[in-house]
């Protein structure tokens, strides 16, 4: 198979989805691997490293799109790439389809086969760990006086107390952020809705952190004395209320910081997406760091970890075909987003009110011994296609 590695073009995106290590494995398995020149440069991998591993280096992404049957990248497909899609092409990338209607429109129109990477990770994405760890670091960076913050240092100084931080959500992202903040000497409170997770975190850190149920009342009480909020809650896209509204933000001390790693509109009322080029803004006296691709700031480490985690998906699809791969891996199956002109992603159907068909039905594998996987979200949809014809 002709496998292509794109150079990501999103602003501030420096990661690459395949390093020379994975290229060597793919080539050894009998595939032709094409890598766009400069794809791994900002992550520390030069073209000659890829060439040495057996890749063919091409000058432009356009050549990758035109040449390859299977294409991979890190972030969403940009509008400038829509016309480059080819019918029947297999695409693996972070699509975030429920939040990107125009992107889904393009994928459906071009009749490609696309997997949204963020739903395919059985043990959680390395990007989540990277976002949590780097996000905690960036939150502390934003608190420095030269960045508009209050100038408090993480662990404090003799006679000066350290940073009081709240981490909302203790999933993979939150746990990674907690690790950095605790090791930096911050006074950390973990807020989650799961008592079991709170108990787990308290035990892990031998009672050196505080815990609380994550709800508006508790946050309202805590925010006036909080220096740093790390938000790693995945907020429902159709939620009618905010977890933290403007009045709650205004209650925080001037120079406090909100680092919104989740980047879900509707969770924090004062949120708006930022980039690495212009990462912060101030609302209600509070510094907001809301970069949408935080892991891009640590592209070297993230690329190595992420590439290793997705290589099995690539080999599974290449060796067994899309249907066979989806039988063997339920997490890959649930990440199938579009298939030859049909939406196959339930959350996107529910959020965007458009028809869909379950992956196992359109692939004709309903009666196969399917590897199980949990649903990606609580969003459900019974808006099915009336007729499917391939």
Strand order of the largest sheet: 3-2-1-4-5-6-14-15
Helix fraction by DSSP (H/I, runs of at least 4): 25-40%
CATH evolutionary superfamily of the largest domain:
NAD(P)-binding Rossmann-like Domain
- What CATH first level of the largest domain would be assigned? Alpha Beta
Q: Estimate nothing, just give the exact number of structural domains.
A: 2
Give keywords.
13 helices; Rossmann fold; 33% helix; 7-stranded mixed β-sheet; 15% strand; 2 domains; alpha/beta; 8-stranded mixed β-sheet; 15 strands
Write up what this structure looks like.
With 390 residues, the protein is α/β, with parallel strands linked by helices. The protein folds into two domains: 2-119 and 298-362, Rossmann fold; 128-292, Rossmann fold (3-Layer(aba) Sandwich), CATH 3.40.50. The chain is 33% helix and 15% strand. It is built from 13 helices and 15 strands. The strands form two sheets. It has an eight-stranded mixed sheet, with helices on both faces. Strands 9-8-7-10-11-13-12 form a seven-stranded mixed sheet, covered by helices on one side. β1 (2-5), α1 and β2 (32-36) form a beta-alpha-beta unit. The longest helix is centred in the C-terminal third of the chain and has 30 residues, at 299-328. It is globular and about 65 Å long. The model has no long low-confidence stretch (mean pLDDT 96).
């Amino acid at each position: 198979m002709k496998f292509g590695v794109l150079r990501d073009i999103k602003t501030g995106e420096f990661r690459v989805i395949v390093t020379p290590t994975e290229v060597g494995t793919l080539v050894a398995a009998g595939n032709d691997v094409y890598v766009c020149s400069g794809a791994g440069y900002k992550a520390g991998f030069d073209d000659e490293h890829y060439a040495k591993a057996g890749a063919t280096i091409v000058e432009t992404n356009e050549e990758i799109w035109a040449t390859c049957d299977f294409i991979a990248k890190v972030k969403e497909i940009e509008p400038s790439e829509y016309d480059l899609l080819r019918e029947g092409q297999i695409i693996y990338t972070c699509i975030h389809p429920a939040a990107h209607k125009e992107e889904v429109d393009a994928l459906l129109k071009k009749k490609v086969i696309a997997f949204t990477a963020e739903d395919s990770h059985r043990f959680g994405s390395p990007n989540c760990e990277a976002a949590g760890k780097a996000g905690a670091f960036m939150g502390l960076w934003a608190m420095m006086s030269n960045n508009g913050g209050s100038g408090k240092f993480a662990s404090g100084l003799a006679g000066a107390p350290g940073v009081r931080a709240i981490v909302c959500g203790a999933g993979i992202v939150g746990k990674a952020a907690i690790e950095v903040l605790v090791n930096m000497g911050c006074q950390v409170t973990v807020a989650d809705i799961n008592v079991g997770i709170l108990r787990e975190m308290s035990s892990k850190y031998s009672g050196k952190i505080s815990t609380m149920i994550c709800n508006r009342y508790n946050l309202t009480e805590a925010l006036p004395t909080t220096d740093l909020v790390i938000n790693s809650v995945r907020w429902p896209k159709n939620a009618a209320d905010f977890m933290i509204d403007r009045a709650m933000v205004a209650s925080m001390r001037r120079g406090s910081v909100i680092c919104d790693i989740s980047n879900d509109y509707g969770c924090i009322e004062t949120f708006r997406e930022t980039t690495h080029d212009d990462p912060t803004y101030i609302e209600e006296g509070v510094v907001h760091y809301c970069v949408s691709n935080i892991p891009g700031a640590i592209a070297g480490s993230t690329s190595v970890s992420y590439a290793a985690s997705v290589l099995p998906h690539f080999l599974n699809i290449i060796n067994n075909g899309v249907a066979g791969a989806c039988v063997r891996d339920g997490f890959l199956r649930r990440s199938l987003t579009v298939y030859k002109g049909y939406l196959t992603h339930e959350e996107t159907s529910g959020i965007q009110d458009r028809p869909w068909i379950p992956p196992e039905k359109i692939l004709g594998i309903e009666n196969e011994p399917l590897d199980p996987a949990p649903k990606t979200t609580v969003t459900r949809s019974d808006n099915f296609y009336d007729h499917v014809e391939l």
